[in-house]
Amino acid sequence: MTATLALSRRLRPILAAAVLAAGWALAPAPASARGPEGIADVAEKVIDAVVNISTSQTVEAKGGSSENRGANPQVPPGSPFEEFFDDFFKNRRGGPGGRGGADNSPRRTNSLGSGFIVDDSGVVVTNNHVIADADEINVILNDGTKIKAELVGVDKKTDLAVLKFKPPRQLTVVKFGDSDKLRLGDWVVAIGNPFSLGGTVTAGIVSAKNRDISSGPYDSYIQTDAAINRGNSGGPLFNLEGEVIGVNTLIISPSGGSIGIGFAVPSKTVAGVVDQLRQFGELRRGWLGVRIQGVTDEIAESLNIKPARGALVAGVDDKGPAKPAGIEPGDVVVKFDGHDIKEPKDLSRMVADTAVGKEVEIIVIRKGQEQTLKVKLGRLEDNEKVQQAAIKKDEPAEKPQTQKALGLDLAALSKDLRTRYKIKDSVKGVVVTGVDQASDAAEKRLSAGDVIVEVAQEAVTSGVDIKKRVDQLKKDGKKSVLLLVSNADGELRFVALSLQ
């Protein structure tokens, strides 16, 4: 090792001379290798508009059992991290704030998140989950000034909230940019309050757009590798012009720390939600009154749609705007208000973002032909009712006569079968009484108690009807058959089964 180092020192003048003679320059790596130079300018420009959100609430303590204590990270007594872990892990979970003790009396807990100012009157945007269930909300400015805030409104579906506080002085505000203009690889800057450390700046790139992670009905996240951790929630994601192009909301991490996969609600969504919350204190979303599902390759083949695209209408609400407009189950919506529909999420987002009462043009494919319909949107009501699954009895009162087809045992609906599977009287068709677990039907999650309403868009009333339709489709060279299937409550869906 020593010999190698000594040789290197003797060679340095020679190597340096050779480099200079060749016209090369020994210079530090260009700034672009570490990121764009504009990050510091962005941070300096906007950091005073980024705030910490402090909330407190009264919770019922769970007691100080050894199981609860053992779930928290263990740190040496007197460690500088002891207070941090006691506050962050124990208080947030409602456990005892000090060591030992099993005090079960209600206690106050605190949590911290992030937000940003969008109006100099003191309007702040953050995440709903940052302030949910809080008894008291405070905004902490970048200089440490703490001010009590009131809630203007929340939208749980996009996890956004708007707050208002009385400004103590002139405020720095930020404006929204156009998230639709983002490209993969664009640099972005996140500013927030990770782990209650205070204003922190991180940078990264746009890793993906329109990401659906099944966290809500309108998922269309920006994915970034800028470091986002607990406490960053509600904080802004900036482009290099200092415009907010997203609100940092979620991370994927087994440890709770950043692993380079963070998600932000795009500014196009945020701006519309914020405007409505400020104006109405609630969201007023458009409503079409249909239940939709994806168009798989098998369904597209059955409906003669090439390529597979759009949103398949599985059901139409009797009281919704779609019914008087002429939309029917089996229609595939391929265009809404001039915009192409590639998948169901596109339609859900577009309808929700359209003004209540607006008349829009919808193009559907019905039995292989395009049709143009006009519909006046209603308003989506947020009832969020949870439907209970029907309890099925193990044995019927009487064994029904069945017909086998497509890996299914099929029987005509009878009073006994309606009672057995709790099928509503309004549901018509052929009931499934058994499923071959090796069949395509089992893979597509058909189960006993489901009711087949249509086969290849023709109504059926018996297992014999289904067998005849299937045999004819096989003779016609079809590769799959499209079934309209109802559950016991009458909710419809389309299922394509292979005929091979």
Summary of the model, kept short:
The chain is built from 12 helices and 27 strands. The chain is an alpha+beta fold and 500 residues long.
Task: Tell me the layout of helices and strands.
Elements lengths: L1 H20 L16 H9 L3 E10 L6 H5 L11 H10 L15 E13 L3 E5 H4 L4 E5 L5 E10 L4 E6 L21 E6 L7 E12 L9 E4 L11 E3 L5 E8 L10 E5 H14 L5 E2 L2 E5 L2 H6 L8 E6 L5 H4 L6 E5 L2 E2 L3 H10 L5 E8 L2 E8 L1 E2 L23 E3 L2 E5 L2 H7 L8 E6 L4 H4 L7 E5 L2 E2 L3 H13 L4 E7 L5 E7 L2
Antiparallel strand pairs: 1-2, 1-4, 2-3, 3-6, 4-5, 5-6, 7-8, 7-10, 8-9, 9-12, 10-11, 11-12, 13-20, 14-15, 15-16, 16-17, 16-18, 18-19, 21-22, 22-23, 23-24, 24-25, 24-26, 26-27
Family: Belongs to the peptidase S1C family.
Catalytic activity: Acts on substrates that are at least partially unfolded. The cleavage site P1 residue is normally between a pair of hydrophobic residues, such as Val-|-Val
GO molecular function, one term: serine-type endopeptidase activity
